[in-house]
TrEMBL record:
InterPro entries: HPF/YfiA_ribosome-assoc (IPR050574), HPF_long/plastid (IPR034694), RHF-like (IPR036567), RHF/RaiA (IPR003489), Ribosom_S30AE_C (IPR032528), Ribosom_S30AE_C_sf (IPR038416). Keywords: Cytoplasm, Translation regulation. This is Ribosome hibernation promoting factor. It comes from the Bacteria.
């Protein structure tokens, strides 16, 4: 059973909202043969312009599902997120089936979909690597890495952090600001 932990920012999570989210997230259980002690972390935010942003993260042993959606209607945002999560599950299942045709313990993780689902899993987009690059990581600070990223016109940039000697990543967020991922 997938249990929902729902947190609201600038909004009170009413029983109606809670039951809608739990019902929709509960539909994802049909894709798994065994999903004990699984928690869906749901964050709901509302803004002054009446838009609602919903984020759902479902961490599991072999797979982490995550989607977010902003919409004028909170319930519509939840429905759109469930569609995204279902696509992620089908894509992962297709990848596993394609990669491991013989019996593998990972295959038991995902339940078989019945033909009534109507979706052709092979038609889902694949994650084929079409290009590979190698380069030296240069020591720099995060500000210099952001400048390099912008000069290249990329959404992210990998570099060796001059202060920590670790590999770090800067990336451009959807809101136009920048994020930093540091490795241990």
């Amino acid at each position: 059973m997938i249990r929902c932990e729902i947190r609201g920012e600038n909004i009170e999570v009413t029983d109606a909202i809670r039951s809608h989210i739990e019902e929709k997230v509960g539909k994802l259980e049909r894709y798994f043969t065994n999903a004990p002690n699984t928690h869906a972390h749901v964050n709901i935010k509302t803004y002054n312009n009446k838009k609602a942003k919903v984020e759902i993260t479902i961490p599991m042993k072999d797979l982490t599902l995550r989607a977010e959606e902003s919409h004028d209607d909170l319930y519509a945002a939840v429905d759109l997120i469930i569609d995204k999560l279902e696509r992620q599950i089908r894509k992962h299942k297709t990848k596993i089936n394609r990669k491991f045709r013989e019996k593998n313990p990972e295959q038991d993780f995902l339940a078989t979909l019945d033909a009534a689902d109507g979706k052709d899993e092979e038609a889902e987009e694949t994650s084929e690597i079409v290009r590979s690059k190698q380069f030296q990581l240069k020591p720099m600070d995060s500000e210099e890495a952001v400048l390099q990223m912008n000069m290249l016109g990329h959404d992210f940039f990998i570099f060796n952090d001059r202060e920590t000697d670790g590999t770090s990543i800067v990336y451009k967020r959807r809101d136009g600001k920048y994020g930093l991922i540091e490795t241990n």
